[in-house]
Task: structure prediction
Amino acid sequence: ENHETPSLTGVVFERIPAQVVEHQTTKLDAVTGATFASNALMRAASQAAEAAGLDMAALEANAYHAQPGATQAWETDILVVGGGGAGLAAAISASENGAKVIVVEKNGAVGGDTLVCGAIYNNPDEALQSKVEMSDAVKKTLEAGIGVEPVDEAHKELIDTVSKEWKQHQADGKTTLFDSDAWFTLQTYNGGDNVADLDLVKVLCDNAVAGYEWIQGLGMEFNDTIGQGAGSLWQRTHTSTKPMGTGFISTYVENIAADENVEMITSTTATKLVQDDTGRVVGVEAEDVNGNTYKFQAAKGVVLATGGFAANSKMVNEYNTTGKWADLSKVPTTNRFGCSQGDGIIMAQEIGAALSQMEQIQLLYLGNVKDGGLTKYPARCVNGTDQEIFINKNGERFVKEDGRRDEICLQVLNQPDAMFYFLESADGDYTDVETALTADGFTFKEMEEQGYIIIADTLDEMAEKLGCDAGTLKATVDAFNASVDSGEDEFGRTLYSVKLENGPFVATPRQACLHHTMGGVKIDTEGRVLDESGAPIEGLVAAGEITGGIHGGNRLGGNAVVDTVVFGKLAGETITK
Result:
């Protein structure tokens, strides 16, 4: 059970004994996703047969194996296609609402790109934010946000709401960090260039706290501090206590393992949505790695949670039409192999689903320079914007580090060799590089040996290791330290907490990589997939990166995980109605 899909154990103990009796053999196909348990049960059956004195040669001769191409039928209440964060959240939510669920995942294990995410989750948190003093520089970010020109009446009402809340915060004599659902919504909408569906943005942000409490109730653990994640634009970021996205996925998997209502099948790819005569989605056709085909029937419907298409270069190039990004055909991706291929979007489109904002594509500046992977970086790179600066190969700053992801990535692409370094010092969260760990749990020493980070006791030594002029690097750091004192920054940065003064210094080389696609199937505020006329396609809901319209032209860092939790939970509730 520890090596495969735990929830399939019940399927194994139901199917294998029945087939042993039916075919009078102990040589059968293993249940996909539960090979160890299947083989263990067949070995036990063989040992029992031999102990009973049965003709083992005859049992061997009766061996039964489904031929590739044979179709196996499965029935359930709800079928979830995709075993990433949104799909697993939807499965648990549907089970909580009384449904039987099967999760079909094309890869050999669940997790998707959530497994390698930065593990940051945004939501207002009065308890933690009350411990943070609100600086004059941070106030400028808020004042700029409520000072934008509204694009319509709904936008104006949202701005007015935040303005009133901010005035009340000040009238109450509070000096700690201000936040609210409305301010979170406004930042998300403004940060996405005001092109998202504001109603969907409200669902995301108004339910972020409830989602945070829900996943904690499942056993998820976060650090007890608040921060500002990379590109999140405000100090409302919570970070998992476990490396990368393992905390989210392990929480889901542990809950599913104890839930007899949920089964997970891996190494099986959904290929087609099945509809009845009325057009209602009633299941999917699928194929496993051995060429066997499956027909999953879902009495209540299907949840699509197959992710975006940032790892599908053909789709990226097809939809890269905004003019923001130049040719992206040779830009690497942070996504895992086999994930984010856009297959669910294509399946939905084949039955008439409308698409939304497919042209909105995001790059992220956290990709390592070896293969673009979102791995092996100090934790502050993803949730410590206040404690670091970004420098190019010449040792110069080139962008405000607490800005939008797209603005930072555009500047990164214009730097020498289209790369840069995070530069941090021992003045922040760590003081001892011998005990410090990267975001995914590696020691700094290991990462230095493998070339993922550079460590130096002094800036002179760092300049030598980076191959830049020491005077330039020291002047860059001195200018930044002066900005920390004055609160005025040449690039417009507003978030500071420490000067960079004491070694050891750590530099982490990174590049901008394809990371997230904000476009996808069009949904309503209940997660129902809509057709070209705007009507819901009966029996079909979607959650996670497969959907469009939530993030607009730029997704705030940390909002993707909120998306998977909030809309995954919502999808499970909607499909069971």
Remarks:
- The first helix runs from residue 9 to 23.
- Residues 85 and 114 are 6 Å apart (CA to CA).
- The first strand starts at residue 71 and ends at 81.
- The chain has 19 helices and 18 strands.
